[in-house]
Amino acid sequence: MEFDAVVVGNGIAGTVAAYYLAKHGFRTALIDKSDTFSESNTYQAQGGISYQGERDSIDLRFQDIMSAGAGICNPEAVEIVAEDGPGLIEEILINEFNVSFSKKNDGSLDITEEAAHSVKRILHSFDTTGRSVLEAAIAAVRKQDKVAYLSNYTAVDIITWHHHSFDKLRMYRPLTALGVYALDNRNKKVERILSKMVVLASGGMGRIYLHTTNPVSATGDGYAMAARAGARLINMEFTQFHPTTLYHPKGENFLISEAVRGEGGIITDISGKAFMHKYHEKKDLAPRDIVTRAILNELLETGEKYVLLDVSAIGKEHIPVRFPHIYQTCLDIGIDITEQPIPIVPAFHFSCGGVMTDINGRTNIERLYAAGEVACTGLHGANRLASTSLLEAMVFGKRIADYAKNNRETVLGFEYPEVPEWIDTGIIDTIDPALIKQDWTYLQNIMWNYVGPIRNKKRLRRALIDLKNLREDIENFYRDAIMDRKLIELRNAIQTGAIIAEHAWTNRESLGAHYRVD
């Protein structure tokens, strides 16, 4: 297969990039490793997207993002998002994609508050904002005849001139992306997909942690593929943990949106006593890293397994209307949040680091772009401000497409070197699911216990040793096995975990989401 552009990932970054690339006349492939778009982090997003409110300004939005990021955000990226974000929400999401956002009784948009924002500026669709945005985006993409939607394909590796071409002089060429090798999950055949540009929009890697809000697809594929191709990754130690996820011994960690606290929810110990005033002047609306560590400290002191989120101040009648998804999910496991508090614990939520890009999504590898959580524009610095992830993905997904449009001759005027088809060397026909499950459990425990919300030298050293051994084992197994999505994901997850541990080990300064007690 051959295209002008191939986009890896079908969240908001990938769909916006694919949609506008197609509108600009580029033949585009959109790769989705599942057969349902509900696996993406975008689909899971609840709270909303940072927009604009009364008494708001570009300067105020700029300062809020910079403050949350502990002062190490990239000012250029922050300025672009603060200045262009609201207009692009209107242009893309409201006017182009026709997203149905929540409104007040008078028909105006319902703008709410979230932690660390100076004013109310969060646009939402009840408590399923990501789902509403992505359903509209996918519908718009499917109407573009220049987009080939390749569902059930798992990207294996980025094809590069250095690693994969037959060019005898390739060692003298600049690092250049030529496409991707992708596994058709249905027939286990790896396809060579050549393209003039590759856009990584593969999302995050939360599944490498024992506790996470992320879906099953968030296995770090993009980080690992980019690293193997020679891309530069930065800020990978800044792993954000969300302070409020539903605690349920037999279930998955379910995100309790920041918007719940924005509407008046209060975190308490199990006796109902509030404690956030001891840790920050903004109390329950403090930045996520501070709230997370506060909860962990309370759990350590009390020996309990969870704390509580009291939502009674929101009002019995308003809770099911404002938070229908959260209300129903809790009700399904026997918790009526109109009558009782929600048991909560922290869990991994978002990676502030990633593949380093400029403001047009370009990486250090020619013709390789990145957007969304897998990318690092520097917008988030050491810690992400609530409801800026969808915003960043949308803004920079479109900037990539616009850059390609403005440099059409350069993008399209490129001749491929000879690139081989994928050569399958697998001799092991079946993969023992017990081995896969055990390696995942081992990895997740390493990351949570040693590279989790609270870190130190001894924990990180142990993580590096254990991850090195685990990676060697999986690489040997990978070389001999047939291609399989679960094996590809495990390999990528282990490599991504090792990258995070290395960055956390190197950075001895506690800052934002990277907290070292030593």
List the helices and strands and how they pair.
Elements (H helix, E strand, L loop, with lengths): L1 E7 L3 H12 L4 E5 L8 H4 L4 E2 L7 H11 L6 H22 L14 E2 L9 E2 L5 H14 L4 E5 L1 E8 H4 L12 E8 L4 E12 L20 H9 L3 E2 L4 E8 L7 E2 L2 H5 L3 E3 L19 H15 L4 E4 L7 H5 L1 H9 L9 E10 L2 E3 L11 E3 L4 E2 L12 H18 L1 H5 L20 H18 L6 H24 L4 H22 L12
Parallel strand pairs: 1-2, 1-9, 2-6, 9-17, 16-18
Antiparallel strand pairs: 3-5, 4-5, 7-8, 8-9, 10-16, 11-12, 11-15, 13-14, 14-15
What brief labels describe this structure?
518 residues; seven-stranded mixed β-sheet; alpha/beta; 38% helix; Methane Monooxygenase Hydroxylase, Chain G, domain 1; Flavocytochrome C3, Chain A, domain 1; FAD/NAD(P)-binding domain
Give the gist of this structure.
This protein has 16 helices and 18 strands. The chain is an alpha/beta fold. The protein has 3 domains: 2-237 and 352-412, FAD/NAD(P)-binding domain (3-Layer(bba) Sandwich), CATH 3.50.50.60; 244-346, Succinate dehydrogenase/fumarate reductase flavoprotein, catalytic domain (Flavocytochrome C3, Chain A, domain 1, Alpha-Beta Complex), CATH 3.90.700.10; 433-506, Up-down Bundle (Methane Monooxygenase Hydroxylase, Chain G, domain 1), CATH 1.20.58.100.
